[in-house]
Amino acid sequence: MKLNGSIIKSIAINTFRETVRDKLLYSLLGFAVLTIAASLLAGSVSLGQDARVIQNFGITALLVFLLIITIFIGTQLVYREVERKTIYLTLSKPLTRESFYLGKYIGLCLTIAVCALVMGVVFLAVLRWKTGQFSTPVIWATSFVILEAWLLTAVGLLFSSFTSALASAVYTFGIVLIGHSATTIWILSQKSQGILRYVLEMVYYLFPNLEKFNLRNEIVYNFQPDLQQVLLVVAYFIAYTAAVLLAGLAIFRRDEF
Amino acid sequence: MSFKQLQFERISWLLPIALLLFSYVAQINYDVWRRYSAPKIKTTYNLYIEPQPLSAESSKAISFGAKEFVADLYWLKLIQYYGGGDPNGKYRKLAELFTTITDLSPKFTAAYQTGLLILPGEGFVNEAIALGEKGIKNLPDRWEMPYYTGIVYHIYKKDYLTAGRYFENAAKLPNAPENAKYLAAIYYNKGDQRQTAYALFKTVYDGTRDSFIKERTAKYLAHLEGIFLLDAKIAEFKQRYNRLPKTLNELISTKLLDGIPVSPLGLTYQYDAENGKIIETK
To answer: How many domains in chain B?
Structure first.
């Protein structure tokens, strides 16, 4: 694998520029901000549970919109290059496919981080305005949502390296659903017997366990994760994302456009 | 440009207007049907308007990790349901909704409190007690859980002794209101546990800074002391004459007592000659 730092950096910056110029991103971001702000309405009819409802609605809106951005923009990136044939132009330059692939990934991660930052700031501002408190658990939960989105970006890129944009969006969405059902799958596997138990356990370990990134249920209880938990989640994220990126690269290297 | 094309272009702008008008007519008709023809809905009104909460397992499975969010959705649904009024006055799904919400969000204090307050009034007394027990298990540091459960035992079950036990447990928890122990003592007294009640009243009396509670507690202590005095004299009478006194006046005529004590609570000490016990009456 030949990687060139400066090339990866310039591809990443270009990818970032490309995605932030996407009109879809702005409309999604607009809707996200509106939805987070609309949680104020839900809070007002919650019989004195404003803070709780705003926190739960806000963090769920943040997750949903960040995942939509990840899925719809992330899965289009490589596919669009191939379809518009701009990839020939890029790959004819002295750069490796690995650098191109990783550059795309990092650029997209940057876009996701910026989107999460915008949504997070709006969310914290709404919360601060309503409750008069600055919520550290919200920052932890948002950081974990970003990690989840970064992992799913790698998954989306893997799919988009061998299938169409729409199909990879659907597959990535499927992974989101499976990943968030990890706890249910585990409980089911423990209740099952015979071959079904092994199949379910395999599903549990094979698919990304997105519930590890879920601190969203704890923010209303002012929960702060301890260092060990954070380190384990980050280690899981690095290992799983690296594995998916390497698998994607292996496919992308053999692709004939 | 052919004549046909020209004709269409001239009327083409009319088409969206006509469609819009048609949609308005349809909408008005729908609204009228909805408002005045409710029986056309084949399900019963209750089924139509009632929330149909999923079981906790199903709700958890479809929440895809957003358990608290789904609990909040059910919470908002519950407020709409209870606030909207049930034409049959039954609120059949009320207890089920509280169960689902607290299964999804086991530490949702307000849900337990609200459930304990409104469920018994709608006829779900046992469900309210089960909710209270669940709250005590999931929120062991919150005094509200045993306190509110104690209220349910008092008002709806008339089980004063159990109510007293819950209030005593509530009083031991952090930030519990000062009156928890006081109420526990009152219920123990009502439940015929006078020694326990006296001990509790004594600690309230010694610890309280509230002048009203101090004054009331002093009266309760004096009232109980009156009962204890009568109990002791009845026991002495029995030891001396090998039988129970027929009336309280017999204690005076035998010089065991100078007079019947007066309850500072305005109650009267009545005597149950059959088992030799003192009963308080208004």
So the answer is: 2
Query: Cβ of B71: how many Cβ atoms within 10 Å?
Result: 26
Give the total number of structural domains in chain A.
Answer: 1
* Domain coverage including residue B253: 223-282
Query: CB-CB: which of B60, B65, B68 is closest to A220?
Result: B68
In this structure, the answer to whether residues B78 and B179 fall within a common structural domain is yes
Domain range for A102: 5-254
The CA distance from B50 to A45, in Å, is 19
For residue B269, list its beta bridge partners: B280
**Is the CB of residue B72 less than 8 Å away from at least one CB of chain A?**
yes
Say whether both B175 and B58 belong to one domain: yes
* β-pair type (B268-272, B277-281): antiparallel
* Cβ pair B184, B162 in contact under 8 A: no
Query: What is the CATH classification number for the domain harbouring B115?
Result: 1.25.40.10
Residues on A contacting B at a C-beta cutoff of 8 Å: 42, 45-49, 52-53, 56-57, 59-60, 63, 176-177, 180-181, 183-184, 210-211, 214, 216-217, 220-221
Mean pLDDT lowest among A217-226, B44-53, B130-139: B44-53
Looking at B222, B239, B264, the residue that finishes a domain is: B222
- pLDDT surpassing 90 at residue B178: no
Regarding whether B87 and B203 lie in a shared domain, the answer is yes
Query: Could A221 and B114 be called an inter-chain contact, meaning their C-beta atoms sit closer than 8 Å?
Result: no
This model of the complex carries an ipTM of 0.85
Q: Cα(B205)–Cα(B215) distance, rounded to whole angstroms?
A: 8
- Dihedral (CA of A47, A50, A51, A56) sign: positive
